[in-house]
Structure to design on (1264 residues):
């Protein structure tokens, strides 16, 4: 049993033990290492100022992605190489991204700039961001209040980082990879028990060990991407004594398309699902593109979005109308539950003591099925939904033979509008039908007013998506 | 080898991109340094019954707790009216108002200590909205008025008359670096304060006042800010005092860094406005008379609110001539954090009202709004006197309007949009051109001054210190360019030093877009004094009795890093050699320059005068598309044309123009402050408060600077650029309104600002609800 987190930061090896492993990465970098280039603004993953690169072993070396360091705990980052703004160029020099930002006036006050430099360097590493739409998509996790972004985009489009500035050149991966491989299979437990406090953080390497931990510590908080708990801790919540971290469990990180189904391990990141669905499930991909931001999608997981049980979780309406199936495992076995039966109330769901969500299986739309997912938020990108919906229909000619309707942000859970579904089946798909369906659906939802939208707004959106769906599927639909 | 006019990078660009530029939270900790925070009022309005810090003091690591009773000097300060308490005493006036300062050895102890403080209040019903304040007759300061002509008469006799009300929301500055200060004791009872402030002099003064020190005992330093936008003009004071108080009491260094949520909850913002308007106009859309009664939500103390309202009145006309006009303004006194400066300073609120009026007139007359704006735009030589009597001199607005309309292909796109809207049932597009005229100068006369210290060293390098504070706007690089050009040397030989009250005293805040105007001009004055001395010295040096050249300072030229006599240009002395020689000859190589803007004055009582040195002008065309079913809006294209004179640094200025525009776009679209009925801010972090993100930037964004050749009064023939472009974004709001007008032509449109998706859908739904309900098959909907 290993009792430390193994982590490299800008090429330097660190072993972190006990309570210290519960520090956020940003606090560790700034306070413990004194590397102050990484800035903290919102402490909730909504501005990107704290972006760093996380490098993880992959088939052909180390792959780097940008993450928000303020909402990542050190214990999640075992066997990774973290690169901060201090580490992307040689001392006293600038890399291609940094130089382009200087030349294009990409910084004004400079507080967001290190974060942008990191997000852009991540794109360079992965060979993307060369065209403006891709570059914009890659920068949605970074807020700037001064520049209006144009100069930053100009910098991004002119950036060329030299071979010597690539992470593999600056930090030869062999030693690190060897170190990671040596430590890949051991279970890890970070335990500290003293007068002041007790804390146990378990980071098992296999599903079996994870289920054993859960059997021993049924009250343990299960952490995967921590994109939600990370925020809550920064805003004052304390972590519980016992944590079960899933980041090292390899069995949970597989995602694939098999036999018309999307099968995702619970710890698959949204970035992986995004690339998997790009060609095969364009409608889901459209939502994933505006789900959080790259930094969030690089950490956030499929299972986390289900277990967080939020009525505004962006993935759920899709699962609801496709009748997705959840696989739940415990030491004593596994069972399967339809997503439509899983939620029982606000943040309440059918998960028994000792059970872990391990897999989500989503049947994909078949031929002659129409699918449309809606995410309405105040801002297009990096915004929590004010309203979500999914409409799936099967047609025979113009007649609706099957209808599934799901709504989010209009009740304590994501919900199916069963009465409206029943109304639709057997009718012709016409504007009048959809207008009527909208009115029926309004009676099935119970939205509240909050900071993201009023009750009236949500009711009106519920009403409106039906005709919108209809018009969007007309061959002569006129759109910008 | 001139550098003025060249797009040199920002002074700190290299430090920014490498993360090595230090902000206050980044400065190395001193031995024994304390972490400082505060505990604020739990209620928006009430009486403090009990403050208990006993448990907090017992928390391990907590060193001290201070309340108003621990303040040795004055606890109440304020620039216009001294009504702003440092720490609340007896009564609390807004949620989160600082009551107790806590100092601790580490962040964790500070957090636990803060949680252990008990503040009990007898809660009273707060007044939160403008409507409630009007009802309760609660105002801050006097009513202000600017008027001309016979308004009632012309309203009554006008061929058309429309009246209405208009609301615009507040806006959070959302500087990325939250309020921050570091203080430590100096010698002889001094206190040194590093503050993220736009106004080092103000921090020096209030810290001295609260601690009971002389101003000579307080040094305030600001190297840079991580954004400010007006939010650190007055409101950097409270955190700075907190740090200074702890440093003074404990003798240890003390640092305050607000977290984003606290910062957003307790500091003031752009003022929300409510306006009653009444206008008369003719068939061509000429505004014959306009009356506006503006009400701003000032919050709990005066802060800068009266000045902000004054600028609203001075910009109620925006770019348009008003023959008969009456503007009055009242600041509402409410239980919100004191609202304060924010880029535009009341100007945007006034200008949005008249742009809304012009759109309304166009809809009423069935004219294109551009036609109505053309009919009203300030003229050249005629129809060019503002309501307060200042002539709009060297006016380029008509030319700007025409150039922009042509460059942006306005007429053709108007046709296209009409056709699209007739066909598309899913979306509706809108187009609008709005004008902008923004007065440059502080409307408080005495603030229009600046001083600068220029130190030339014997190797020909120079340090410049001014009262200007660097918040990202690039004032430093611009001053550096001006100074380098004065001596005709490479700008790399000039460095801008941290702003400090030790070097520059009695400075004005870096605000009102005038940072470069005032401080750059002062730096040039200092350079010229040094040059005068160097000229005399060089003249002697370069005199040549053999060829009959007598020493003549007026023939001495500074060029390309050297100095020569223009009668014998082949003999050149390198600048650094001249400096070395001059020092040995006991010539003073340092100077302090002073500049005061000439010819400006404004009488607040009569509402008349010449408050502005000049106007920055421009116009913008925005095109938007709205989803008819969700209200979601995208900005498709923006074209803007702005006259900023001859740009000192086009790279920096372009950044100000685009950044300002996008910030304004945020104000009129998605930035929405939501409070509950207890006066608690619900949108207090970027999760719930949405400033524009990169994907909100219009895919087509054409930015042009108007080639101005007659602007000579200001430094380097430039014009101020900080605030004006923000107001070009009113075009986005006007375009949204224009799009909605296609939903039901001729109907009244009650669109507020910000035009969020929710607000747009509300207006569209209301317009559609008037139409007959459709017969729905197979169901009966209750209530239909």
């Amino acid at each position: 049993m290993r009792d430390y987190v193994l982590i490299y930061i800008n090429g330097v090896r660190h072993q972190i033990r006990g309570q210290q492993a519960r520090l956020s990465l940003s606090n560790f970098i700034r306070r413990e290492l004194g590397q102050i280039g990484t800035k903290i603004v919102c402490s909730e993953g909504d501005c990107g100022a704290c972006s760093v690169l996380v490098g993880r072993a992959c088939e052909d070396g180390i792959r780097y992605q940008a993450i928000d360091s303020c909402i990542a705990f050190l214990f999640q980052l075992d066997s990774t190489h973290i690169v901060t703004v201090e580490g992307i160029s040689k001392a006293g020099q600038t890399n291609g991204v940094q130089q382009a930002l200087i030349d294009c006036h990409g910084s004004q006050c400079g507080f967001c700039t290190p974060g942008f430099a990191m997000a852009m360097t991540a794109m360079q590493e992965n060979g993307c961001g060369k065209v403006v739409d891709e570059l914009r998509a890659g920068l949605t996790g970074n807020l700037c209040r001064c520049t209006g972004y144009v100069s930053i985009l100009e910098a991004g489009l002119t950036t060329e980082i030299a071979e010597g500035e690539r992470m593999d050149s600056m930090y030869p991966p062999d030693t690190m990879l060897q170190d990671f491989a040596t430590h890949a299979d051991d279970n890890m437990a970070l335990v500290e028990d003293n007068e002041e406090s007790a804390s146990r953080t378990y980071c098992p390497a296999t599903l079996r060990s994870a289920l054993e931990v859960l059997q021993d510590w049924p009250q343990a908080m299960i952490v995967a991407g921590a994109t939600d708990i990370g925020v809550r801790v920064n805003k004052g919540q304390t972590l519980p004594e016992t944590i079960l971290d899933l980041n090292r469990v390899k069995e949970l990180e597989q995602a694939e398309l098999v036999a018309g189904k999307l099968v995702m391990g619970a710890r698959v990141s949204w970035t992986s699902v995004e690339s998997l669905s790009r060609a095969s499930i364009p409608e889901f991909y459209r939502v994933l593109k505006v789900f959080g931001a790259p930094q969030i999608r690089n950490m956030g997981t499929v299972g986390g979005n289900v277990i967080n049980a939020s009525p505004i979780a962006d993935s759920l309406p899709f699962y609801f109308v496709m009748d997705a199936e959840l696989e739940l495992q415990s030491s004593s076995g596994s069972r399967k539950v339809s997503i439509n039966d899983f939620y029982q109330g606000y943040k309440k769901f059918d998960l028994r003591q000792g059970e872990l969500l391990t897999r989500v299986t989503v049947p994909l739309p078949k031929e002659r099925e129409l699918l449309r997912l809606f995410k309405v938020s105040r801002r297009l990108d990096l915004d929590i939904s004010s309203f979500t919906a999914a409409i799936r229909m099967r047609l025979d000619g113009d007649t609706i033979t099957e209808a599934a309707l799901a709504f989010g942000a209009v009740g304590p859970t994501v919900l199916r509008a069963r009465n409206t579904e029943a109304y639709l089946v057997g009718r012709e798909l016409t504007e009048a039908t959809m207008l009527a369906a909208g009115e029926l659906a309004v009676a099935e939802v119970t939205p509240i007013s909050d900071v993201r939208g009023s009750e009236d707004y949500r009711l009106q959106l519920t009403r409106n998506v039906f005709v919108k769906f209809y018009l969007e599927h007309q061959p002569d639909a006129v759109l910008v | 080898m001139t550098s003025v006019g060249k797009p040199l990078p920002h002074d700190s660009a290299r430090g920014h991109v490498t993360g090595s530029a230090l902000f206050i939270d980044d400065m190395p900790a001193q031995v024994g340094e304390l972490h400082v925070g505060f505990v604020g009022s739990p209620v928006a309005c009430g009486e403090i019954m009990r403050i208990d810090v006993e448990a907090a003091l017992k928390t391990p690591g907590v060193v001290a707790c201070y309340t108003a009773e621990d303040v040795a000097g004055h606890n109440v300060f304020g620039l216009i009216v001294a009504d702003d308490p440092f720490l609340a005493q007896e009564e609390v006036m807004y949620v989160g108002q600082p009551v107790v300062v806590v100092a601790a050895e580490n962040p964790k102890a500070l957090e636990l200590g803060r949680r252990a403080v008990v503040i009990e209040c007898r809660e009273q019903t707060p007044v939160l909205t403008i409507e409630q304040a009007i009802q309760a007759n609660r105002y801050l300061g006097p009513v202000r008025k600017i008027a001309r002509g016979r308004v009632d008469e012309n309203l009554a006799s006008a061929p058309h008359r429309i009246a209405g009300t208009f609301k615009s929301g507040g806006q959070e500055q959302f500087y990325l670096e939250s309020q921050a200060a570091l203080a430590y004791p100096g010698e002889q009872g001094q206190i040194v304060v590093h503050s993220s402030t736009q106004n080092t002099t103000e921090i020096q003064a209030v810290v001295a006042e609260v601690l009971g020190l002389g101003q000579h005992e307080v040094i305030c330093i600001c190297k840079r800010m991580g954004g400010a936008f007006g939010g650190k003009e007055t409101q950097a004071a409270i955190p700075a005092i907190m740090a200074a108080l702890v440093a003074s009491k404990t003798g240890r260094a003390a640092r305050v860094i607000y977290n984003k949520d606290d910062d957003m909850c307790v500091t003031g913002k752009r003022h929300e406005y409510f306006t009653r308007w009444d206008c008369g106009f003719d068939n061509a859309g000429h505004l014959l008379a306009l009356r506006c009664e503006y009400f701003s939500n000032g919050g709990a103390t005066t802060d800068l609110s009266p000045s902000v309202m004054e600028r609203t009145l001075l910009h109620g006309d925006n770019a348009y001539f008003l023959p008969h006009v009456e503007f009055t303004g009242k600041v509402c006194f409410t239980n919100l954090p004191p609202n304060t400066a924010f880029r535009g300073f009341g100007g945007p609120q006034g200008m949005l009202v008249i742009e809304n009026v012009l759109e309304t007139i166009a809809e009423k007359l069935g004219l294109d709004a551009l036609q109505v704006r053309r009919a009203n735009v300030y003229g050249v030589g005629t129809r060019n006197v503002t309501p307060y009597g200042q002539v709009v001199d060297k006016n380029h607005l008509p030319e700007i309007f025409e150039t922009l309309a042509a460059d942006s292909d306005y007429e053709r796109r108007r046709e296209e949009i009409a056709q699209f809207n007739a066909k598309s049932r899913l979306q509706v597009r809108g187009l609008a051109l709005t004008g902008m005229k923004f007065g440059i100068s502080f409307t408080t006369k005495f603030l229009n001054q600046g001083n600068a210290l220029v130190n030339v060293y014997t190797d020909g390098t120079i340090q410049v210190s001014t009262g200007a504070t660097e918040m990202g706007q690039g004032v430093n690089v611009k001053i550096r360019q001006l100074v380098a050009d004065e001596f005709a040397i490479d700008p790399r030989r000039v460095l801008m030093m941290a702003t400090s009250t030790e070097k520059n005293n009695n400075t004005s805040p870096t605000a009102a877009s005038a940072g470069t105007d005032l401080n750059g001009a002062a730096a040039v004055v200092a350079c010229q004094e040094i040059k005068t001395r160097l000229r005399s010295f060089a003249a002697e040096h370069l005199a040549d009795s053999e060829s009959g050249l007598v020493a003549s300072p007026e023939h001495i030229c500074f060029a390309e890093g050297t100095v020569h006599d223009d009668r014998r240009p082949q003999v050149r002395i390198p600048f650094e050699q001249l400096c070395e020689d001059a020092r040995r000859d006991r010539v003073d190589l340092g100077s302090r320059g002073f500049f005061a803007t000439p010819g400006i004055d404004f009488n607040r009582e009569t509402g008349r005068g010449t408050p502005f040195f000049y106007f920055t002008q421009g116009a913008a065309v925005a095109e938007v598309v709205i989803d008819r079913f969700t209200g979601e809006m995208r900005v498709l294209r923006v074209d803007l044309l702005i006259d900023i004179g001859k740009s000192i640094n086009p790279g920096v200025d372009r950044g100000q123009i685009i950044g300002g525009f996008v910030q304004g776009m945020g104000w009129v679209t998605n930035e929405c402050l939501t409070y509950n009925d207890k006066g608690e801010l619900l949108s207090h972090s970027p999760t719930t408060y949405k400033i524009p993100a990169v994907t909100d930037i219009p895919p087509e964004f054409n930015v042009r600077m108007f080639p101005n050749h007659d602007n000579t009064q200001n430094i380097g023939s430039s014009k101020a650029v900080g605030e004006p472009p923000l107001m070009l974004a009113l075009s986005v709001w006007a375009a949204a309104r224009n799009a909605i007008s296609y939903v039901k032509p001729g109907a009244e449109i009650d669109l507020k600002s910000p035009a969020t998706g929710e607000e747009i859908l509300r207006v569209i739904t209301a317009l559609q609800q008037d139409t007959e309900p459709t017969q729905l098959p197979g169901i009966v909907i209750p209530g239909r």
